[in-house]
Structure to design on (192 residues):
């Protein structure tokens, strides 16, 4: 894997790395990029609510000020993990990977042109969310004194909502044995 930082994305899909389409490739049934980011942002807010409630009560329901301070620290930690989040995605690629920022859409993302198996695509999509979200949150649930780790996980889990959508599309649309590749903002699958 060789990571290339590309900076601010200009919104033009044609500038993203891609190879030619594979014969018989089928595009994931997914919304266009702007609608996808809107759905991901709304979904992350909806997912955040039950996590916040669970976090609040698991930490012993402290005074609101203490809760807000812990929550703010967790939010800062989650924001600081966005770049490493994308690096974990990139580690799942074998070839060149390109990292973009698209802050006016509330997104960072990596793009590569290589094919992946369904399993590797799902693993690539979930890896950062497991490392930065689920594991810290579960550790907090087991050891409630780890309140900052819990706050971090509470914020980090919803930050991966776009990744969860990609996993959903792969699980519901790709047959076993299929391979997936990116083309612009869309993913295509085909049977080799």
């Amino acid at each position: 894997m060789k990571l290339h930082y590309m900076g601010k994305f200009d919104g033009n899909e044609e500038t993203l790395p891609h190879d030619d389409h594979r014969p018989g490739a089928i595009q994931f049934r997914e919304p266009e990029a702007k609608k996808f980011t809107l759905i991901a942002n709304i979904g992350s807010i909806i997912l955040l609510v039950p996590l916040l409630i669970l976090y609040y009560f698991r930490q012993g329901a402290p005074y609101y000020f203490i809760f807000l301070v812990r929550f703010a620290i967790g939010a800062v930690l989650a924001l600081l993990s966005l770049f490493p989040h994308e690096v974990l995605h990139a580690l799942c690629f074998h070839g060149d990977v390109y990292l973009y920022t698209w802050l006016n859409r509330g997104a960072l993302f990596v793009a590569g042109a290589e094919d992946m198996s369904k399993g590797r695509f799902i693993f690539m999509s979930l890896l950062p969310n497991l490392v930065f979200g689920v594991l810290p949150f579960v550790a907090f649930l087991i050891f409630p004194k780890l309140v900052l780790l819990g706050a971090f996980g509470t914020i980090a889990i919803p930050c991966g909502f776009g990744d969860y959508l990609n996993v959903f599309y792969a699980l519901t649309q790709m047959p076993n044995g299929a391979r997936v590749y990116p083309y612009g903002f869309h993913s295509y699958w085909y049977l080799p």
